[in-house]
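We now fix the convention by which a protein and its fold are recorded. Here is one such record, which you should read through line by line:

>
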Amino acid sequence: MQIGIPKEIKTQENRVGLTPQAVAQLVRSGHTVRVEAGAGVGSGYADAEYQAAGAQIGSVDAVWQAALVVKVKEPQPVEIARLRPGQTLFCYLHLAPDAPQTAGLLASGCTAIAFETVEDGHRRLPLLAPMSEVAGCLAPQVGAMALHAWRGGRGVLLGGVPGVAPADVLVLGGGVVGTHAARVALGMGADVTLLDRDLNRLKALDVQFGGRVKTAHAGMLHTLIRQSDMIIGAVLIPGAKAPHLIRRADLAELRTGCVLVDVAIDQGLAKGLNVHAGGLYEPNVAAVQGKPLAALADALA
């Protein structure tokens, strides 16, 4: 099979669909792999490494002629225009909130397989899990920076200092993202509460963290959000929009300067101002302007 690895063109996306090691395995199995020139640079892989692995370095046109195209992020409009019937696209798609992309893929006639919905024999999501681990680890770090007073936060240190209490961090969802977010926040010294609707999952997490992380059932949500300095949204429904757990009406109940970090924002951001699965965002500010935080003046007043 001919396999193409294009260079990612989405803003701030530096990953690449396959590493040189993965390319070498495919070539040994008899496949032809074409890698677009410079595709791996953002991830630290030079064209020479792909060539040493047996890949051909080609143009964007040559790569998109392959029967199977493997990339990272969802295809951009100019990439969708390159797709054709009989071709297979393999990447993260996140179709639930993206009707235009869905329509474009259907019109192309290609077969599109989403990384985030591929399951193993135990119904786990092996291609989503690694990115969920990264996102979970990053969430408390990003949130800690946003807690600085000069950024509009509460002026609270995540781990506190002697004589001053640490920040209260609420993690919504006890899956891969939530578990890693709780672990990092705990390591930074925060007082962490992990909320999930599955009591058995909460029991397992209590054992995993040795009782150092508080656990709470979903029914405690609206009590806990009023007591939190940081809320991390880590809710996932595979292949579907994430639920809106915190509503506009809840904003007045939050502490002034409370920071909300939403890992699931790319899986269901809707119109208008949304507090989505724990996140507070102005639509498309992060995606369009490349800013990690959206400033919403007086949103919590």
Notes: Confidence is low (pLDDT under 50) at residues 268-301. The CA atoms of residues 197 and 218 lie 5 Å apart. Residues 129-289 form a domain with the Rossmann fold fold (CATH 3.40.50.720). The chain has two domains: 2-117, 129-289.
